[in-house]
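Notes taken during the Thursday session

The instructor put the following on the board and asked us to keep it in front of us for the whole hour. The protein is Alkaline phosphatase. We were told not to look anything up and to reason only from what is written here. First, the residues (110 in total):
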Amino acid sequence: MIAASDPGRRLLQGLGTGLLLPATAAWSGHTLAAPSGRASITDGVHSGDVLKGRARCCGAVAIARRARVECETRPSLRRGHRVDGQMAVPAHDFTAHVDLGALPHDHDIL
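Then, after some discussion, the predicted C-alpha coordinates were revealed:
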Protein backbone atom coordinates (compact mmCIF):
# COMPACT_ATOMS: atom_id res chain seq x y z
CA MET A 1 0.00 0.00 0.00
CA ILE A 2 1.30 3.45 -0.87
CA ALA A 3 1.16 6.02 1.91
CA ALA A 4 -0.23 9.48 1.15
CA SER A 5 3.20 10.98 1.86
CA ASP A 6 5.04 8.50 -0.39
CA PRO A 7 7.18 10.36 -3.01
CA GLY A 8 5.95 8.03 -5.76
CA ARG A 9 2.34 8.87 -4.97
CA ARG A 10 3.09 12.60 -4.96
CA LEU A 11 4.82 12.21 -8.32
CA LEU A 12 1.79 10.53 -9.91
CA GLN A 13 -0.60 13.06 -8.39
CA GLY A 14 1.55 15.89 -9.71
CA LEU A 15 1.79 14.35 -13.16
CA GLY A 16 -1.94 13.75 -13.36
CA THR A 17 -2.75 17.24 -12.17
CA GLY A 18 -0.16 18.84 -14.43
CA LEU A 19 -1.52 17.05 -17.47
CA LEU A 20 -5.21 17.44 -16.74
CA LEU A 21 -5.60 20.92 -15.27
CA PRO A 22 -4.67 22.89 -18.40
CA ALA A 23 -6.97 20.66 -20.43
CA THR A 24 -10.00 20.84 -18.13
CA ALA A 25 -10.48 24.55 -18.85
CA ALA A 26 -11.63 23.58 -22.35
CA TRP A 27 -14.08 20.82 -21.32
CA SER A 28 -17.60 21.10 -22.65
CA GLY A 29 -19.89 18.40 -21.28
CA HIS A 30 -18.07 15.09 -21.62
CA THR A 31 -15.88 16.13 -24.53
CA LEU A 32 -12.48 17.74 -24.28
CA ALA A 33 -11.95 20.35 -26.97
CA ALA A 34 -8.45 20.30 -28.43
CA PRO A 35 -6.80 22.79 -30.78
CA SER A 36 -6.99 21.79 -34.42
CA GLY A 37 -4.68 18.89 -35.23
CA ARG A 38 -4.10 17.89 -31.62
CA ALA A 39 -5.40 14.74 -30.03
CA SER A 40 -8.06 15.08 -27.34
CA ILE A 41 -7.72 13.24 -24.05
CA THR A 42 -10.63 10.78 -24.04
CA ASP A 43 -9.89 8.70 -20.97
CA GLY A 44 -7.64 10.93 -18.92
CA VAL A 45 -4.22 10.12 -17.61
CA HIS A 46 -3.58 6.70 -16.16
CA SER A 47 -0.92 6.13 -13.56
CA GLY A 48 1.91 3.75 -14.11
CA ASP A 49 4.90 2.44 -12.25
CA VAL A 50 6.89 4.74 -10.00
CA LEU A 51 10.40 3.73 -9.05
CA LYS A 52 13.25 5.67 -7.50
CA GLY A 53 14.05 8.42 -10.00
CA ARG A 54 11.73 7.04 -12.73
CA ALA A 55 8.05 6.97 -13.62
CA ARG A 56 5.75 5.89 -16.43
CA CYS A 57 2.77 8.02 -17.44
CA CYS A 58 0.04 6.43 -19.57
CA GLY A 59 -2.97 7.91 -21.35
CA ALA A 60 -5.48 7.44 -24.13
CA VAL A 61 -6.43 9.79 -26.98
CA ALA A 62 -9.02 9.87 -29.78
CA ILE A 63 -6.68 9.86 -32.80
CA ALA A 64 -3.18 8.59 -33.60
CA ARG A 65 -0.60 10.94 -32.07
CA ARG A 66 2.68 10.72 -30.17
CA ALA A 67 2.41 10.84 -26.38
CA ARG A 68 4.20 13.79 -24.78
CA VAL A 69 4.68 14.79 -21.15
CA GLU A 70 6.03 18.07 -19.84
CA CYS A 71 7.23 18.05 -16.24
CA GLU A 72 8.87 20.55 -13.89
CA THR A 73 9.88 20.79 -10.23
CA ARG A 74 8.91 24.45 -9.80
CA PRO A 75 5.31 25.73 -9.73
CA SER A 76 6.13 28.41 -12.32
CA LEU A 77 6.47 25.68 -15.01
CA ARG A 78 8.79 28.03 -16.94
CA ARG A 79 11.53 25.48 -17.57
CA GLY A 80 9.43 22.40 -18.20
CA HIS A 81 11.18 19.33 -19.54
CA ARG A 82 9.45 17.71 -22.54
CA VAL A 83 9.59 13.94 -22.97
CA ASP A 84 8.16 12.24 -26.06
CA GLY A 85 6.88 8.69 -25.83
CA GLN A 86 5.14 6.12 -27.99
CA MET A 87 2.65 6.69 -30.77
CA ALA A 88 -0.96 6.12 -29.72
CA VAL A 89 -2.24 3.91 -32.55
CA PRO A 90 -5.38 1.83 -33.25
CA ALA A 91 -3.49 -1.43 -32.68
CA HIS A 92 -3.06 -0.35 -29.03
CA ASP A 93 -6.54 1.22 -28.62
CA PHE A 94 -5.00 4.69 -28.97
CA THR A 95 -3.15 4.33 -25.68
CA ALA A 96 0.50 5.19 -25.22
CA HIS A 97 3.01 5.66 -22.44
CA VAL A 98 5.95 7.92 -21.72
CA ASP A 99 8.86 6.72 -19.62
CA LEU A 100 10.26 9.50 -17.44
CA GLY A 101 13.80 8.82 -16.29
CA ALA A 102 16.41 10.74 -14.32
CA LEU A 103 13.78 12.43 -12.15
CA PRO A 104 15.17 14.41 -9.21
CA HIS A 105 14.86 12.83 -5.77
CA ASP A 106 13.00 14.58 -2.92
CA HIS A 107 11.08 16.91 -5.25
CA ASP A 108 7.44 17.08 -6.27
CA ILE A 109 7.11 16.72 -10.02
CA LEU A 110 4.52 19.01 -11.61
